[in-house]
Structure formats: structure tokens, C-alpha cells
Design brief:
about 425 residues, alpha/beta, binds pyridoxal-5'-phosphate, five-stranded mixed sheet, about 40% helix, seven-stranded mixed sheet
Length: about 425
């Protein structure tokens, strides 16, 4: 499809980035299961290696199946380019890599996916990077956390697991005032419910493992670039603004303009870190994305019904779903995710930790797994699993207190999901 500008989301989720295979006319995007690509001649090879011509060299860097997915996700998010990689966590490291160096820090929300809290509070220290965790509702605290060594601000649009919505335009203004890129993890919302770039985000990261693939089959990640950040405005981002020794002194921002981050992600990030998405994985995710809007509509409708039912149930202490009128984030949900507040939320069962453990054991349709964004409904008791490595204080701050379970509502019949929760709550709280 050539002109993608004027098409709607439902059209783009099927067509963006794809065209009939030039060799065979195959209508569906083929899985280019190849490691390398034959150069036309030695000059062609040299031009590709010098980044003077765009093409395929080796599948650690680029692959035609993965390239279609990159263009599809970039288009749906309203970005100029995207880099796919092997997982959502790889995408986060790949997003930070060009911005960071030893002694530098990022300012991040306390409300994040548990694995991200661990990655940012522990693992990145090995690179000499650090993260400052701040309550993003406290804008003064966000501003105060930024110092001369800060290189990015990071949050989730709809935060996992607590049904929290970040006020993206407010955070984007703070980032802009400080001359810093805002990175938004849009995994829980998907571009169907929220497009962070429209609200001022510089980069969007995804775990494509979740809703974009949609059926719990493969792990993957993506980084989408808005193309709107001026990497050369200060000397803070030398990887993008200064000569790159590995490419004969090429300056990425000067040479590639708005595509600087994307080219750097492929030419340096994938080349040297090697966190590559494989073409089979890209194929599964392309299959999933074709039905993204259809699935998200059902996910949201089911989540609303289940959350409303739970909120009225006397065996439940509270439900944190931003799609409920009672949520403190209801106004933000209206403004930032008008088509729905996602399908991920938590609730507290009367009876605390023990009742939660009984509940997950008693459910029949809901699967107890460490995943989300599947067509199947999923449940997890975060405090005993994904958020187990955190202190109780961190668990509470992340919306994963011991008495709380997280639901990822699937696309089954809502009445069946409610009946399943009803019988399991009876066993858990009797
Ligand atoms: C799952 C998830 C991640 C990590 O993605 P992986 O594909 O599991 O590496 C990051 N952020 C959010 C919001 C997630 O749900």
C-alpha cells in the first residue's frame, strides 16, 4: 500500500508496510527465513556497509519480514520508524542504549511492569546507568528528580498492573522543558487505545509479546521513534549528534534527520547488541496485528463488564480499573484512552494473601500465568510471582500489594468469565 496517510486504523493494521511479494506475488507477507542476502556486486556491498544505500545485509540487522512489522507498528503509532527486537525488555535496553553512558540516569515512574522495575533498579547498574523512581502524579517530584546527568524520562501509558493512567501531556511538557526525550511503554494500551506520540512522547516501546501478537505465542519488542526530537540541540546525546567512529565519523542525526534514532538502532544497536527479532516471530505478530482493533474492542468491553461486576461484589475490597467511573483516573481515561482503558486491572480479595492464592488455584477459565494481553483470560498474584523480588513498599507503590490479583481480561464470553470468578471467589473467601 503506497499512501498510508489517509487510511483508518482498521485498514492500516492489515496493510501498512506490506505489499505483494515482488518475486512471487504472494499476497501474505512471506517469512523470509534467511540469514544473508546476495549483494548485486562489490560496489553494492560497500554502499550497504557504508549506510549509503538501504538494503539487506544480514538478518541480525534487517530482514524483510521483520521490516514489514517495523513499518506496520511505526505507522499505527504515528512514528517515522521502528526497530523490532527479541523482547519487550530488549526494546527498553535498545531505547536507552543510544542515550545513556556510565554515570547517567533516567527518571522513571514507580508504576511499571514488575520486570521493568527490576531491570531499572538492578540490572542497568551493571552498565553504570541508574534510575530514579518517582510518583508521576507528583509533577514537582518529577521535575526535582531531573539533574544534569538525566537523559530520559520513562513511564507506561496505562501502567501495569494497577489500572493507572499517566497524564502523558503533563509529563511530556516536563520532558520538553528539560530538553529530554520522553519514552512511553505503550504495551498495555496498544496504539488502538492510545498513541503516546500524539501526546508528546519521543519514543514508544512495546512488548509485542502482549496485545500486538495477541495470542501468547512469541516474545518480541519494538521501539518506535516519533522523529520529533532534536538530538543535536545540546551535547547530551553524542551517539546521535557526534561523529560515529564505527562508521568513519558519520553523524547519525545530521545524516538521517528524523530517522536518526531508527538507523542508529539498526546500525549500532542490533548490529552490536544483537537483540534481534526472528522472522518467524515477526510473522506471528503480523498475524496478530491484523485483528488488533477487533480484539481490543472486545477486551475492553469484557474488562468493563467484569470490573463492574467485581466492584459490586461484597467479597471484593476494591477494583482498580481506570474504565470505572469510580476510578480516580476516570477523567484521564476519558481524555487519553477514549476508546477504553484497556483490559488489565487489579482487585483486592477479602482475606488477603491467602485468599488470593486460593482464588488463583480455584479458577477454571482464567489461567494462572505470568503474561498478559492474550485472547485467553489470565490471572496472576503479582506479590507471589512477578513482583516477588520487590519489597512490600515497592509492591504497594507498583499496585501489586499482597491482597491484590491482576486480571488480563480475554475475548471469551464475559458471562463465562464472571461465572468463573464467582465460583472461585466462593472457594477463596469461604
Ligand atoms: C511484558 C511487558 C514488558 C516486557 O516485555 P517482554 O516481551 O516480556 O520482554 C515490558 N513492559 C510491559 C508493560 C509489559 O507488559
Amino acid at each position: 500500500m503506497s499512501d498510508t496517510q489517509n487510511h483508518g486504523f482498521d485498514t492500516l493494521q492489515i496493510h501498512a508496510g506490506a505489499r505483494p511479494d515482488p518475486a512471487t506475488g504472494a499476497r501474505q507477507t512471506p517469512i523470509y527465513q534467511t540469514t544473508a542476502y546476495v549483494f548485486r556486486d562489490a560496489d553494492h556491498a560497500a554502499a550497504l556497509f557504508n549506510l549509503q544505500e538501504v538494503g539487506f545485509i544480514y538478518s541480525r540487522l534487517t530482514n524483510p519480514t521483520v521490516a514489514v512489522l517495523q513499518e506496520r507498528i511505526a505507522t499505527l503509532e504515528g512514528g517515522v520508524g521502528a526497530v523490532c527486537c527479541s523482547s519487550g525488555h530488549a526494546a527498553q535496553i535498545m531505547a536507552l542504549f543510544p542515550l545513556m553512558g556510565p554515570g547517567l540516569n533516567i527518571v522513571v515512574s514507580t508504576r511499571l511492569y514488575g520486570g521493568t522495575i527490576t531491570q531499572f533498579s538492578q540490572t542497568i547498574k551493571r552498565f553504570g546507568w541508574s534510575a530514579k523512581f518517582v510518583d508521576f502524579d507528583d509533577t514537582d517530584a518529577v521535575k526535582a528528580a531531573i539533574d544534569d546527568n538525566t537523559r530520559a524520562i520513562f513511564c507506561e501509558s496505562i501502567a501495569n498492573p494497577g489500572g493507572y493512567i499517566t497524564d502523558l501531556p503533563v509529563i511530556a511538557r516536563i520532558a520538553e522543558g528539560a530538553g529530554l526525550p520522553l519514552i512511553v511503554d505503550n504495551t498495555s494500551a496498544t496504539p488502538y487505545l492510545c498513541r503516546p506520540i500524539d501526546h508528546g512522547a519521543t519514543l514508544v516501546v512495546h512488548s509485542t509479546t502482549k496485545y500486538l501478537t495477541g495470542n501468547g505465542t512469541v516474545t518480541g519488542g519494538a521501539i518506535v521513534d516519533s522523529g520529533q526530537f532534536d538530538w543535536s540541540a545540546t551535547d547530551k546525546f553524542p551517539s546521535l549528534s557526534q561523529p560515529e567512529p564505527a562508521y568513519h565519523g558519520l553523524k547519525f542525526h545530521e545524516t538521517f534527520g528524523p530517522l536518526a534514532f531508527t538507523f542508529h538502532g539498526i546500525a549500532i544497536g542490533l548490529r552490536d547488541l544483537g537483540m534481534t527479532m526472528n522472522p518467524q516471530g515477526a510473522h506471528y505478530t503480523l498475524m496478530g496485528i491484523e485483528t488488533l482493533s477487533l480484539r481490543m474492542e472486545r477486551h475492553v468491553a469484557n474488562a468493563r463488564k467484569v470490573a463492574e461486576w467485581l466492584e459490586k461484589d461484597p467479597r471484593v475490597d476494591f477494583v482498580t480499573y481506570a474504565g470505572l467511573p469510580s476510578s480516580p483516573y476516570a477523567e484521564r481515561a476519558q481524555r487519553l484512552t477514549p476508546k477504553g482503558a484497556g483490559a488489565l486491572f487489579t482487585f483486592a480479595a477479602k482475606g488477603g494473601y491467602d485468599a488470593c492464592v486460593k482464588l488463583v488455584n480455584a479458577l477454571e477459565i482464567f489461567s494462572h500465568v505470568a503474561n498478559l494481553g492474550d485472547t485467553r483470560s489470565l490471572i496472576i498474584h503479582s506479590a507471589s510471582t512477578t513482583h516477588r523480588q520487590l519489597s512490600e513498599e515497592q509492591q504497594v507503590a507498583a499496585g501489586a500489594a499482597p491482597n491484590v490479583v491482576r486480571l488480563s481480561i480475554g475475548t471469551e464470553d464475559a458471562d463465562d468469565l464472571i461465572a468463573d470468578l464467582d465460583q472461585a471467589l466462593a472457594k477463596a473467601t469461604s
